[in-house]
DNA sequence: CCACGGATTGGCT
DNA sequence: GCCAATCCGTGGA
């Protein structure tokens, strides 16, 4: 197997930059979770940005609560929330203390630990090849495949459990931009970013 | 204490 | 394409 995991771990200085810059730069990077014997990893192919100051769709908008406290920390931590009584979604906290800025990981392309991801998602083997593209093609799916729950909210991304590895920067012309998905407020902000034509996107 | 709605998903029409 | 499932965070009484 190609050694996807030899690259260097992203440091706090990467995360503590401006929200949208971090969001775009996260595309193509390798999201990693150590899981006992397994190393689960995937290439980040779709993200969305959320901002506490003026973005009404953000959980951090207007107020800090116990749940969203981690979003107001300095960049470089994980924020995980539970929604619709069924799904977890994970975010990368960015920027400076007090900003309430974070990037939602919406989809990844599986790289290593794929059999474990399949087990976590479906509890069985794949029925067909097509199901590979249903493994991590959404924020809830990705958390399920990586077995990430709100117990992981607050994890330090410069630690050894969950982190992101550097990679070559994705070219601007390869990055698609759109409005965010599934929200009802601040719907017009063009803050969804994705790698064009990647088969693991949550939608085209 | 109670009511309400959600940064989604998958199944059914 | 439409919509129910399902639990918890949040805010108001």
Report on the structure:
- The protein has 204 residues and is an alpha+beta fold.
- It is 14% helix and 28% strand.
- Strands 1, 2, 3, 4, 5, 6, 7 and 8 form an eight-stranded antiparallel beta sheet that branches.
- Strand 3 and strand 4 form a beta hairpin.
- The longest helix has 9 residues, at 114-122.
- The mean pLDDT is 96.
- It binds a DNA duplex (13 and 13 nucleotides) through strand 3, strand 4 and helix 4.
Any low-confidence stretches, pLDDT <50, length ≥5? Answer: none
Query: How big is the Rg?
Result: 16 Å
Task: Supply the helix-strand structural class.
Answer: alpha+beta
Biggest β-sheet strands, sense, barrel: 8 strands, antiparallel
Measured between the Cα atoms of the first and last residue, the distance is 29 Å
Topology, element by element:
Blueprint: H1 12-15, H2 19-26, E1 30-35, E2 38-51, E3 78-83, E4 87-94, E5 101-112, H3 114-122, H4 139-146, E6 162-165, E7 175-178, E8 192-195
Antiparallel strand pairs: 1-2, 1-6, 2-5, 2-8, 3-4, 4-5, 7-8
This protein binds a DNA duplex (13 and 13 nucleotides) through residues 48, 50, 57-59, 65-67, 81-87, 89, 91, 104, 106, 138-141, 180-184, 202.
Which features does this protein show?
204 residues; alpha+beta; eight-stranded antiparallel sheet; 4 helices; globular; DNA-binding
